[in-house]
Amino acid sequence: MRLEDKEILRKKRHERLRHKVKGTPGRPRLNVSRSLQHIYAQVIDDTTGNTLAAASTVDAKLRGTIKGGGGNIEAAKAVGKLIAERAKENGIETVVFDRGGYKYHGRVQALADSAREGGLQF
Description:
Nucleotidyltransferase, domain 5
């Protein structure tokens, strides 16, 4: 199976998931996106389309502290902790988790667990 085919299937899974998961002002959506090199997280209010908080491995705060680049579980844990911290600064306590069509495994799971430890509820 080619990489393009896998990406198409992931996007289909994400579309199906997005019919069920909606971000509201009271409970925004925590979206996760990943590549081979990096992982990204955003807290989004879907009613207005605004990003309320964001964190990633390319963020200046994390760039120098992560060993082995941004494509590992350690980096995902750091991003989860940072997104929880930034969300709490904006007064966000609860979110709905949008895994972006990825399996809830590995880096995605590590980011979610770390965000829960940081104080977010979902």
